[in-house]
Structure prediction request, 72 residues.
Amino acid sequence: MRYLWTLERDGREPRGGLDAVDALIEFLRSEDLPGIMPPDWIVATLQMDEDDNGVAVQSSPHGWRLRVKRMA
Prediction:
């Protein structure tokens, strides 16, 4: 399974990609993201998605926004 993701930061260009879980977790761990859920929680949220829309969004009061969508 792959995930389409976008990371937006105040004052910076958005970054994004289409990656497998391992690559997404590795990317998120390499970033300094105060206020963002640990990567494993984001993936767990997607896997337990009760609305079955396959999307997790995490916003931080520090100016970060991460959106992750499960792709087939």
